[in-house]
Design brief:
The complex is a heterodimer of chains A (302) and B (417). With 302 residues, chain A is mostly helical. Chain A is built from 14 helices and no strands. By secondary structure, chain B is α/β, with parallel strands linked by helices. Chain B is globular and about 65 Å long. Classes of the chains: A mainly alpha (302), B alpha/beta (417). Chains A and B meet through helix 13 of A and helix 3, helix 4, helix 18 and helix 19 of B.
Chain lengths: 302, 417
């Protein structure tokens, strides 16, 4: 009764209260529409034009896409993305789970160790790239160090070998991100109901068996979100490449993102660059849509 | 915040304007921000301010000007370009085609520009047969920088052909030095490639390949030979070359770690900064086989359309001042390049610059003067990029033969025309 009275009395205020969430959100929504989706659409439009130096709107059909797929450098960039992305995700996940399991054994100084592993994530990829550039430089870093220790025949020149340079990117990226994956899994491990594990122990299951049969399967959601995040890092990778190899030697470590940048902004081929950007978007969507689908369906079932 | 700054600037500018009622303002976009370069720009500013105009500096750091160009594009698209911007080579044509550049013919006529510089240079400065840009300096790209000390120790002779280069390099390698300092970046690979092509094929071949993009020339046996010689240089470089900056490669020659470097005459600035004297501590000779040719790289300012009549006057004054002997001398002494103006008094310049000037003048008559491909003088940025890709990839990969590389070159150029 009282509530009803209050409602009728405070009608103007109520109206404002109703509108406030919309008011607060609208700038964000507007900005998202303009600066994210608007520019995505603009890029899409540009990819069908003859834009070269500056954007123009002479329709060119799928010419830019044809040019893109004929471009050898784009082929290299896509191959590299598969090599780099595949290895990076796989190694990061494996290493992350492994470290998380080791850390989960109730050891001393766990907090300190966790910080040590997680710390690389705090560095930007530019810093990581620059540091690894020095470490991997044959005349300056590892190779020199081992040679100076007396192993004259030791060579480790991946950074300057156009066939192996792509793997140096994997090394640096894994170094940076595996700690983060570990933290994700550690949180997942901690959230598992201990009574299930205790029950398994009472049933006489060995520790590896408990991990393999109970703990890891229940980490499926964590595994999934880690996978999605790593995928994004891999496809977006730009700063690491710029700092570590700058796409070289030659263009052997080019990734789609560096390709896009080079063609849109330094080569004056905005149309071609936009086409490559759209292909990257397609790649992201190919991962994202199945993920969203499974997520949304999952919540409905639950 | 930006808007606030802008309005502050506007207030400042208008107060200056009201003080000197006849003065216009020039806003100049450039990327000369390093020590010697900044000094050179300050000279221009001073000369202009003496004439009563206001100089608004618009410096965007970053060698090569990539970031400067990005800023310029956004300013131009939003309808607010600066009065002048450091644009060079065929990019001038692109900007001209887009209709952004102003016609400088009046200034050019008054000051007889056409008689001041070789025709091949003035051609670069014109769009649609009208002057739209002013050249500032000329760099010679086909230089070989030599550390004579190492040559003496190794008992080698400074090479004048690519065959002699091989002999000398072998001797130097045996003596335990790096024969050729290099930085493995695409533009540096292309700079070396271009010198090899000019040395082996000569200016006619060079022009056919990189200016006219003649498909036959690009796939010819001569081009295959160029690729072979180019690749053979790799064995004379040290292993750490990939990704190295050009000035670090130059410092290897300065420090006596490496015997030679193929690089344009901006390298002289590094020698000068290290207190080295030409002819004594280092030698500058033409790249093997290119004694009678000159690959030029010209910095220039393109002039944009401005509306305000006073600012237009200031812009014309800027254009005129750039080509005057006073500025040409001071600027180029600081920059390490040579004046673009013919018939200058070269007394204050060092022996390398004098050599450079002599061959600039003589090759402009003999036909040996060619535009640099590696520095965007001969082709549009797309074709240049395509050539860079092929050259750099071939140089760094052991899987491609010289013949395949020549075919790839032709294909890549054809695809980007």
């Amino acid at each position: 009764m009282q509530v009803v009275v209050a409602k009728t009395k405070k009608k103007p205020l109520d109206f404002i209260a109703d509108q406030i969430p919309k008011l607060v959100l609208s700038p964000t929504i507007l900005m998202t529409i303009v600066f994210i989706y608007g520019y995505v659409i603009w890029t899409g439009v540009l990819s069908f034009t003859k834009s070269s130096f500056l954007p123009n709107y002479k329709f060119a059909g799928t010419l830019q896409y044809e040019k893109l797929f004929e471009n050898e450098r784009w082929g290299v960039a896509v191959d590299n993305l598969f090599i780099f992305g595949g290895l990076f995700i796989l190694i990061c996940l494996a290493l992350g789970i492994f470290m998380a399991i080791l850390l989960d054994q109730r050891i001393r100084a766990e907090g300190a160790i966790r910080t040590v592993f997680l710390y690389p994530m705090a560095l930007s990829f530019i810093v990581t790239g620059t540091a690894w550039k020095w470490i991997l430089n044959p005349g300056l870093g590892l190779e020199r160090l081992v040679k100076d220790m007396g192993f004259e025949n030791f060579t480790f020149d991946w950074l300057i070998n156009s066939d192996m340079a792509i793997y140096t990117l994997v090394i640096a990226a894994v170094w940076q991100s595996s700690g983060f994956v570990m933290a994700l899994f550690l949180a997942g491990l901690r959230s598992i109901d201990s009574s299930i594990i205790k029950a398994a122990q009472i049933d006489g299951a060995s520790l590896p068996k408990i991990y393999w049969r109970i703990i890891l399967p229940s980490l499926r959601p964590v595994f999934f979100s880690a996978f999605i995040i790593l995928c994004h890092i891999a496809i977006k990778s730009f700063d690491l490449v710029k700092a570590l190899t700058n796409g070289g030697p030659g263009y052997s470590t080019d990734l789609p993102a560096t390709f896009m940048y080079a063609f849109s902004f330094t080569r004056g081929q905005i149309g071609l660059g936009s086409a490559s950007a759209m292909m990257m978007l397609a790649g992201v969507l190919a991962i994202l849509i199945p993920y969203l689908y499974s997520e949304l369906r999952g919540t409905r079932n639950a | 915040m930006k808007k606030f700054k802008k309005s502050l600037l506007a207030i400042a500018a208008s107060s200056v304007m009201s003080l000197s009622a006849y003065a216009g303002e020039v806003e100049v976009l450039h990327w000369w921000t390093s020590g010697g370069e900044a000094k050179s720009v300050a000279v221009l500013k001073e000369l202009l301010e003496k004439q009563g105009h206001t100089w608004k500096d618009f410096a965007v750091a970053g060698g090569g000007g990539e970031s400067a160009m990005t800023v310029l594009k956004s300013r131009a698209v939003s309808g607010n370009p600066p009065s002048a911007a450091q644009i060079k080579g065929l990019d001038i044509q692109e900007w001209g085609e887009l209709g952004f550049l102003t016609d400088l013919d009046k200034v050019a006529e008054e000051n007889k520009w056409s008689s001041l510089m070789p025709e091949i240079v003035s051609k670069v400065m014109k769009y649609d047969d009208q002057y739209v840009a002013v050249p500032v300096n000329v760099h010679r790209v086909n230089w070989l920088w030599v550390n004579p000390e190492i040559f003496k120790k190794a008992g080698a002779k400074v090479p004048t052909t690519w065959a002699e280069f091989k002999d000398a390099a072998e001797k130097i390698k045996k003596a335990g030095f790096v024969p050729l300092a290099h930085g493995g970046q695409a533009w540096q690979d292309a700079t070396v490639f271009e010198s090899v092509a000019l040395g082996i094929g000569g200016p006619e071949f060079f022009r056919k390949a990189f200016v006219e993009h003649d498909m036959k020339t690009l796939q010819s046996d001569k081009m295959v030979e160029v690729f072979e010689v180019f690749k053979s240089l790799k064995q004379y470089m040290d292993k750490d070359a990939p990704g190295r900056d050009w000035n670090i490669a130059t410092s290897m020659v300065i420090k006596g770690e490496a015997a030679m470097q193929l690089m344009g005459d901006w390298a002289k600035g590094e020698f000068a900064a290290a207190g080295k004297k030409p002819g004594k501590d280092y030698l500058c000779v033409a790249a093997p086989g290119t004694q009678n040719s000159f690959t030029f790289n010209i910095d220039s300012f393109a002039m944009f359309n401005v509306k305000d009549p006073e600012n237009k006057k200031a812009q014309a004054a800027l254009a005129k001042t750039i080509l005057e002997p006073e500025f040409q001398e001071v600027f180029n002494l600081n920059k390490g390049s040579i004046p673009v103006r013919l018939g200058m008094n070269m007394e204050k310049f060092d022996s390398c610059a004098k050599d450079s000037m002599n061959s600039f003048v003589s090759t402009s008559k003999s036909g040996g003067l060619v535009p640099s491909m590696a520095h965007g003088m001969s082709t549009t940025s797309y074709i240049q990029g395509a050539i860079f890709d092929v050259v750099s990839n071939y140089f760094n990969s052991d899987k491609i033969t010289a013949k395949e590389a020549a075919q790839k070159l032709a294909k890549a150029v054809k695809a980007s025309i």
